[in-house]
Fold these 2 entries.
Entry 1:
Amino acid sequence: MREPLPADMFDELCPSSLNPIRFGDKWAGLVIRCLEGGPRRFSELRVPLSRVTPKVLTRSLRSLERDGLIKRTVYAEATPHVEYELTPTGRSMLEPMAIACTWAEQHWDEMLDARESYDNAASLDQAG
Amino acid sequence: MREPLPADMFDELCPSSLNPIRFGDKWAGLVIRCLEGGPRRFSELRVPLSRVTPKVLTRSLRSLERDGLIKRTVYAEATPHVEYELTPTGRSMLEPMAIACTWAEQHWDEMLDARESYDNAASLDQAG
DNA sequence: CTGTATCCACACTGATACTG
DNA sequence: CAGTATCAGTGTGGATACAG
């Protein structure tokens, strides 16, 4: 046990952008979950993502589109609108993400407690 | 199908820092995987994480310690050293992370392809 | 050995206002 | 309706040097 860690352990596997537990930008996870139930229009996404400004939401959507995780379709009709939907690749991400969500929900409380303890200890260090 | 998305869908579940697929900072995932095999010293971690400056690695380690995912132990001996190891909470994260890693490995190529297509299309738009 | 200090660059986010 | 433009704040990461 405790063999040395190879220096190139993650060189190929993990370019800096491929930390798999740190996928996408701040809102990517929520965007994907919002599209879980089927195609959504931009204005529909803005409801659950009301804290996200349109500029930021647009960028997040474009980034996911760029990576082939969602498909953007423009309907140039009398009342023009745009629909976003998960691609098969994007849909394949739902399961690992749900697992990560479950983990986060189960451990969120203890992480908050740990933070509080850590911060309190730091305060005491400063004081004393 | 296609019911409206509730506006408060993620208010409680996902404060901005609790996007579960975007855990920790840039290097958190790799740090955790480096600790999978047991306790490691700071200098040992620096080998596989050679691209990370000590300042950034320290910050990442402190952040994980703050959240109770790793434990930091100082040995104040003749040759002082520090060991980091996963807590039970930290270890519980290995499985969801491994699943996310598997997904990323399986879909990394197609995501790169999608990016290339997307960028090429954008270039053509500019040109023509 | 295990970090800190300093300076810098830039990406990300956000608020507000505006447009085809 | 579906975005863009602009400006600004902040954090996050990186290079380099230094310290207990």
Entry 2:
Amino acid sequence: MKAEKVKPLFLEAVKKLGITEECNFLFETPKNPEHGDLTTSIAMRLAKQLKKNPRQIAQEIIDQVSANASDMISKIEIAGPGFINITLSGKFYADGIRELFEKGENVGRSDFGKMQRVNVEYVSVNPTGLLHLGHGRNSCLGDTVATLYHWSGYDVTREYYFNNAGNQMQNLAKSIYARYMQLFQSDFPFPEDGYHGEYIKLIAAEIREKFDNTLKNPSVENMQIIRKYGEKWCFEKIKATLERMKIKQDVFYNEDSLYNTGKIQEILDFFKEKKLSYVKDGATWLKFSELGLQDDRVIVKSTGEPTYRLPDIAYHREKFRRGFDILIDIFGADHVATIPDVMAGVKALGYDSSKVHPVIYQFVTLTENGEQVKMSKRTGKSYTLDDLLDEVGPDVVRFFLLMRSGSTHLEFDLNLAREQSEKNPVFYLQYANARISSVIDNAKEAGIKLENDIDFSLLTHPREISLINTAMNFGQIILDATRKCEPQILADYLRLFASEFHAFYHDCRIIGVETDLQKARLALAITTKNIIKNGLTILGISTPDRM
RNA sequence: GCGCCGGUAGCUCAGUUGGAUAGAGCAUCAGCCUUCUAAGCUGAGGGCCACAGGUUCGAAUCCUGUCCGGCGUACCA
């Protein structure tokens, strides 16, 4: 955002040096404050092309830029091998903070996406069990990515894809049935590959409560009743957990509908017609080897049942047909293998697979006292998302699941999460917000009013400049986090920004200083609050005014 | 075997299309409350960026190889 304002001056200068083609150079914020506010290595990059000494090129650029003398820049100089360091003027910052202040509660919103239609698919758990921590990461990532797109000016649909037919539902029914029978006959055998979770026993107990012993005969009708009961039970629990996490979804897309409406058959026919599929050993294979992948794969088993690939491909085609410009899939690392198949399939159907953005996240481990807490499904003693929510609440859960990049393993430290103190990064952010709220309240009581007469150029203290500087990056941070589908970028930024606020608060008194300075500082505080509040809101974290 | 993700401070992790002296939080140690919320601020120590080569003005970042960890590699989803 800062860079955008200075860039035109440099593009002009570079053009004068004889560079006609689009040259993409960027400005960075130097780590060392002695190097100014912005720095660019463009001179070194152009050195080869122009066959000149980088320092000489830098000097020529500087001459050009200074000639167009802008009041945005107060100092511009060469450093080291040819860096151009720029120190921005007081006016630059005064204008910058004024702009942010005027945006008010809309700071961070943009129309960058031009209302392109985005579909974000997440959670997508089949109704056979309860949500655990891994699902939590999926849900929070998806939900936050969707919110980021919304703030960046896209038309977002939040989608949940599920399958309530197929083997796993039969398995659920069999598992519940076995637990149900065990209530009458304790040695009734439990299926080897059944769902071992404790919740199955709860469902079984409820069923006995309602139906007594009338379902003991495992007839098709009875198993159907059990299956439906289990499905409903699980889905309600899942939805309740999502609600606790403040995760919303617009569309629940049922895999069944792909069959009912003939979509699956259409795809089969298409592949057959294009000679991209063939039958071998009674199964239908898709020629992935002709679609740029290693091996052919089965799409319909010899039993006549499709493998997951077929509906996945059909589902993605439907998303394209529904008119989405961007398709985002949130997948756990265990699903990476399906991605190339779907991509290849979609491409073969004539759609632009580059519009599909899979977001992969690595696994979550839960640690307590330095030891890993088991979350295994099979042992039955899984630690569910609800258990975690009971212990630390949704704000902490969301922040912890979002504060790491999806590409790395996430260690969820229960001890730290339980900590209700400054050690816990969530409270650090919420505290900043509460602190500002308190100041704003005090200002109101003191009768301080902000009209259109704020002189932002009075904000010259290093802490003020530093805070404004970081505030001015907020818009770009939102866009970066959106484009990369990385809420962690925002979470990280907010920690930095809050720490800059705390330092400012410590060194610069707001209420009780000279009238004009008081107004300017209050306006800065209000802008800071808007940014922290919007940032936390995007992450789905509450912003209490008092703590 | 092959594919994907990772290996950065005691621990958990950042590190902006390759940039200047490698960053944060926690932990350890030392300071700061008669003043707007001390759930805060300031400072110190702590590093062979897994290892070995290569590319170039310049590498934690790019390339090759090796080692370690996780996840895949089904006519399971």
